[in-house]
Amino acid sequence: MLTKTLIRTFVLSSVSLLYMPTSVAQKVDTSRAVQWSARVRPSKSATSVNVAVTAAIQPGWHLYALDQEQGGPVPTMIRLASGQPFTLAGPVKQPDPIMATDPNFDMPVRYFEQSATFSVPLTRQAASKSASDVTLEVSYQTCNDRFCLPVTTAKVQAHIPAAAR
Amino acid sequence: MTANRVLVALILTAMFAAGAGRAETQTTKQSGSAARISPGTPQPSRPVDHYRRTRDWEQVQEYMGEETFYNRTVGRWLHKPENRTKSWQDGEKELGIQRPDADKAYASALDVMTADPTDDLGFLAIQFCMKFTEKEEPLNHCSEQALTYLDQYYISDPRMKDITLSLARAAGARGEAILDKVIASSTDRELRAAAAWWLVEEKHNEVDDATLPDAQRSVRREKMIRLAHLLQEQFGDVNVWSGKPAREEIAPMLFSLEHLALGDVIPDMQVQRVDGKKDDLNNYRGKVVLLDYWATWCIPCVHSLKEHVAPLKNELAGKPFEVITLSIDDNAGKVDEFTKSVMPLPFVNWHIGMNSPYYYPWGLAGVPHYYLIDKNGVIRANTFEAETLLETARKLATQ
Fold first, then answer.
1. Which among A23, A98, A143 has the least Cβ separation from residue B300?
2. What is the pLDDT, as a whole number, of residue B16?
3. Those residues with Cβ within 8 angstroms of residue B381's Cβ, 6 or more apart along the chain or in another chain
4. Does B301 touch chain A (CB under 8 A)?
5. A28-51: per-residue pLDDT in tens?
6. d(CA A28, CA B384)
7. Is the separation of the CB atoms in A18 and A10 below 8 Å?
8. What angle do CA B231, B233, B235 make, to 5 degrees?
9. DSSP assignment, residue B261?
10. CA dist list (Å): B43 to A13, A118, B155, B314
11. Could you tell me if the ipTM is greater than 0.95?
């Protein structure tokens, strides 16, 4: 029998912040390959805000890097949802991805495993200094070694406290 | 392994006996504790030793913390590029840490739930044992007992909803029997929906498991179709987990169960080829056809094409065998580029895109996916693993 893909999912609950180093699943479970969350990093400035967007990646799954070259896996993209009192203040930063060369594709494949936290710098519009929620949209594609899920868009929200005086 | 289990069993029995004995000696001291249990809940067989129970639960929590620490630490080590080919055992040696002992935690959780299987702590202990079962094939003492309590006390308890996935996935026939009971007799509507949902999610793949006997597959199929109908008709508005109502979520699965199982004649497909010309699956009747759903961005699809599909096509050259690729890329141009820069595709190549009526509505969620169809259009394999259908394809094409 073949060693099948390593995929596990867990129902969120008080006792399930656990995952398995090795497990054998009978089928492809596509339901929760990557889960996204966001929080605001403390900042002293009244106008600049930094949001940390974290991907929790199930064992065995790959999330592709922001700078994945075109022509292979689709790079992850993080953007600000429209109609909010914020603007992007610079490029989104990512941790160092794993680099691999694939025998079929003439390019390096850059990806993350387990977890990745992206840093999104925002500028708060001058008129809006009160507390508010910011919504980010993450488009991403994900694969394990046997199976891929097409690009999907997740929305993540972070609460931004009122600006300091 | 077996010897190990026997040992664990002995230890558990011993601990259990010791625990029971100790509790008995304290009967008078603890006699008031039964009054704290709300009316209608079962009376514990022996008075609860709250001190000991709290300590037992602390041990379980400590274990969970250690397990998380272990996974994170060794996981991070394995994550480093230079360690990518190494094992968890290598990581343990290198880092000088050990996998925490689960058996002790199971024994403690068993004590916690036995004292009172219905209060919050009892439920957490049951949940702990069931979750941990997800990763271990055979049930252990703790999960066996948890199943007994779930069957006895939780059939209509909304807390059970959290455990339905574990029951469907990893608790074997006992787990399925409990879910059947929930569906048939629970008074909690959402719980009934969750039980039906996870049974279909976890067991539907058996319908297309060619290694199972026909009779077993057909019993499975009947049950899955019945549950999917139930979800659509009685629980259509319930949101089980995804945010979408069950009616919407189950529709593609139901279509696949009713029309795309092994032995069914595949529905007709009218599509466009990559070169823009119209094509029809009917044009290939009389040939064995392998439908290969893929995308240019899907590395595993490309591996499978190269390792399994292309060689099979070569091997069966001159035989009545056709490979049809169905790309779900945004546009057909991506496939053109791919054939120039990565590999040629000497097959019939269709471009269907992600919004095709032959993709999501057929119950497909990712790529690759394969249907193997015989000369009469009958589905003979329905799988995401090409290597499992090669033998059948050879046989059908050379018959």
1. A143
2. 40
3. B208, B210, B262, B370, B371, B372, B388, B389, B392, B393
4. yes
5. 445 568 999 999 987 777 788 899
6. 8
7. yes
8. 45
9. S
10. 27, 52, 18, 70
11. no
C-alpha gyration radius of chain B: 27
Quote the tokens at residue B47: 């008075």
Q: Given phi > 0 = left and psi -120 to 50 = alpha, else beta, which region is A121? A: beta
Rounded to an integer, the average pLDDT of A100-117 is 86
Of the listed ranges A101-105, A147-151, B21-25, the one predicted with least confidence = B21-25
CB contact under 8 A, A15 and B242: no
Residue B308 backbone zone (phi > 0: left; psi -120 to 50: alpha; other: beta): alpha
Nearest to B300 among A2, A15, A147 (CB): A147
* pLDDT at A3 > cutoff 50: no
B16 vs A: CB within 8 A: no
Model confidence over A47-73: pLDDT tens digits?
A: 888 999 999 998 889 999 999 988 889
Q: Which of B61-75, B84-98, B249-263 has the highest mean pLDDT?
A: B249-263
Closest among B16, B190, B34, B61 to B119, alpha carbons compared: B34
CA–CA distances in Å: residue B41 to residues A93, A95, B37, B142: 54, 52, 7, 21
Choose from A11, A16, A31 for mutation: most chain B CBs within 10 A: A11
Q: Do B367 and A150 touch (CB under 8 A)?
A: yes
Question: Do residues B226 and B203 make contact, with C-beta atoms less than 8 angstroms apart?
Answer: no
Of A10, A18, A114, the CB nearest to B68: A18
Cα angle for residues B283, B287, B289 (degrees, 5° grid): 85
Option in A15, A102, A147 nearest B64 (CB): A15
Task: State mean pLDDT over B131-140.
Answer: 65
Q: What residues are paired with B379 via a beta bridge?
A: B373
Q: Inter-chain contact B342–A98, Cβ cutoff 8 Å? A: no
Among B123, B299, B382, B383, the strongest candidate for a mutation testing the A interface, having the largest count of A CBs within 10 A, is B299
Can you give the pTM of this predicted structure?
0.80
How far, in Å, CA of B179 to CA of A70, rounded? 47
Tokens of B331: 């546009």
Side-chain-facing half-sphere of B311: CA atoms under 13 Å: 10
Give the C-alpha separation, B37 to B33, whole Å. Answer: 8
Strand A132-143 vs strand A115-124: parallel, antiparallel, or unpaired? unpaired
DSSP code at position B344? -
Residues in chain A: 165
pLDDT class for B135, splitting at 50, 70, 90? low
Cα–Cα nearest to B350, from B359, B362, B341: B359
pLDDT per residue as tens digits for the range B302-323? 999 999 999 999 999 999 999 9
